[in-house]
Structure formats: structure tokens, C-alpha cells
Amino acid sequence: MSTVLLYIGIGLILAGWLSLSWFAIQQMRVRKEYGRMSQRSDELKAILVRRRWTCRAVILVGMIVLIISLVV
How many Å apart are CA 56 and CA 19, to the nearest integer? Predict the structure, then answer.
């Protein structure tokens, strides 16, 4: 059971980091593409910031699961 939790925790952490870096790349593209249109850029930036916070939450949950698997 603890090995399953260990792999789930590692998987969540990896998925969180990969998606976090993907959304960071998208945010840089948005900044470059919509640099002159600030209203559209601000809308997309707000969406991407929310998604990046979701990725950080997934990483945190993965770390909690990993700690639980190491304690049990």
C-alpha cells in the first residue's frame, strides 16, 4: 500500500511540475503575442495564473501523499 502511495505521490509531483512549466511557457507566449493589446493579455494572464496555482496545489498534494507513504 505504501509503495502505491509513493508512486502516486511521485506521479502527482511530476504531473504538477510538467503542467506548471507548460503554463509558464504559455504565459510567456501570451505576453509576446498580445504585448500591445493589454486587455486581452490581462484576461489570458489571469486565466493562466489561476491554472498555475492549480498546478502548485497538485504538487503540494503530491508532496503530502509522498510524506504519508513514507510515514506509513
Answer: 9
One DSSP character per residue, the chain reads -HHHHHHHHHHHHHHHHHHHHHHHHHHHHHHHHTSS-HHHHHHHHHHHHHHHHHHHHHHHHHHHHHHHHHH-
Grid cell in block for residue 52 = 498555475
Helix axes 2-33, 38-71, angle to 10 degrees: 170
**Tens digits of per-residue pLDDT, 33-47?**
877 777 877 888 888
Instruction: Please state the length of the chain.
Output: 72
> What pTM did the predictor assign?
0.84
